[in-house]
Amino acid sequence: MKHLSRQLKILTLMHEDLVPPASIEGLDDKQIQPWKMEYDVSVTLQHLGHHVEPLGIYGDLGDLAEALDRVQPDIVFNMMEEFDGHGPYDQHLVSFLELRRMRYTGCNPRGLTLARDKALSKQILAYHRIPVPAFAVFTPGRKVRRPAKLAFPLLVKSLYEEGSVGIARASVVRDDAALAERVELIHRQARTPAIAEEYIEGREIYVGVTGNERLQTSTPLELVLEHLPEGAPNIATSRLKWDYAHQQKMGMATRPADLTADQHRHLRQLAKRIYRALYLSGYARLDFRLGPDGRFFLLEANPNPCLSYGEDFAEAMHLSGIEYEDLLDRILRLGLNYRGVM
């Protein structure tokens, strides 16, 4: 793939605690893991010939405004998943970039808003006749009353948080007492409303999508837990996502999903329909459940997937014939070409 021919001034935007060092010499995997994505992206962009200026921020837009004025970047490579400690504020950060008429990578504010709210995104997809689990939302301070039509088992999680926050085996509940207990835990720990959605037994499938108007899907990957205890739910818990030793114990792997040609074709079409229905742009990972009846249910759309080399999103693209440098170059091109309201 032919890369961008001109050198860009790129402001790489990241959390202030995740600004990587210039070199990883002498560091082990555990030390590198927290900021591996930021390092992989920055080093690869430099290798592509671009001038890269890192900026770590937390909750002060003044720092970003100062950097934009100082660097005068051609584009901002956005790796922020929150702002001021709040996940849903990521959309406002991108809105600020748009107000400054600044090109940026990743998803637009409307897509971030719709994908972040797991209830709103499901309502939109249901309108488009795209299969999603039945669900109910429980806000803090109100008694937990399950709608009569919402049948057990249910999976309880935060309405807004990503990265498997608050998800454990106990998140799959089978009676009203357990539902109330788990909802209260989400209210207390995540400090957000809780969503309880129909738990669908089956296989967990991930699909990467890149594009603005013309979309490209990746090879579907399946989450496999080879040592899952009998009777335990097949879900990506918070511990499984972040604890390497637990991953090894569970025999966790993501590998190309064994699907029929018809399933592959249907999943590609479904992924593109979802991406467009939620007004996503740039790139995203879509998490599906393949139920016993052969239907794909959209669980979540993640417009901020990890871009680390070798992680699920980049690996899925690699299996589709898109190498890591090509992926980042494509993300840059999509950011430069996205017009939105500009």
Domain count: the total is: 3
Q: Rough shape? A: globular
CATH class of the largest domain: Alpha Beta
Rg over CA atoms:
20 Å
CATH topology of the largest domain: D-amino Acid Aminotransferase, Chain A, domain 1
CATH architecture of the largest domain: 2-Layer Sandwich
Q: What amount of the residues lies in strands?
A: 15-25%
End-to-end Cα distance, whole Å, is 29 Å
The helix/strand class is alpha+beta
User: In sequence order, what are the helices and strands, one letter per element?
Assistant: EHHEHEHHHEEEHEEEEHHEHEEHH
* Number of discrete helical segments: 12
Number of strands: 13
Mean pLDDT: 93
Fraction of residues in helix = 25-40%
Biggest sheet character: 6 strands, antiparallel
CATH superfamily of the largest domain: ATP-grasp fold, B domain
- Which residues form runs of ≥5 with pLDDT under 50? none
Explain how this protein is built.
α4 runs antiparallel to α5. Strands 8, 9, 10, 11, 12 and 13 form a 6-stranded antiparallel sheet that branches. The chain is globular. The chain has helices spanning 29-32, 36-47, 61-71, 90-99, 109-116, 118-127, 176-189, 238-242, 244-250, 261-277, 312-319, 324-337, and strands at residues 9-15, 51-57, 75-78, 135-138, 154-158, 172-173, 194-198, 203-211, 216-217, 221-225, 252-256, 282-290, 296-302. A hairpin with a 5-residue loop joins β12 and β13. The chain is an alpha+beta fold and 342 residues long.
Summarize the structure.
The protein is an alpha+beta fold and 342 residues long. The protein has helices at 29-32, 36-47, 61-71, 90-99, 109-116, 118-127, 176-189, 238-242, 244-250, 261-277, 312-319, 324-337, and strands at residues 9-15, 51-57, 75-78, 135-138, 154-158, 172-173, 194-198, 203-211, 216-217, 221-225, 252-256, 282-290, 296-302.
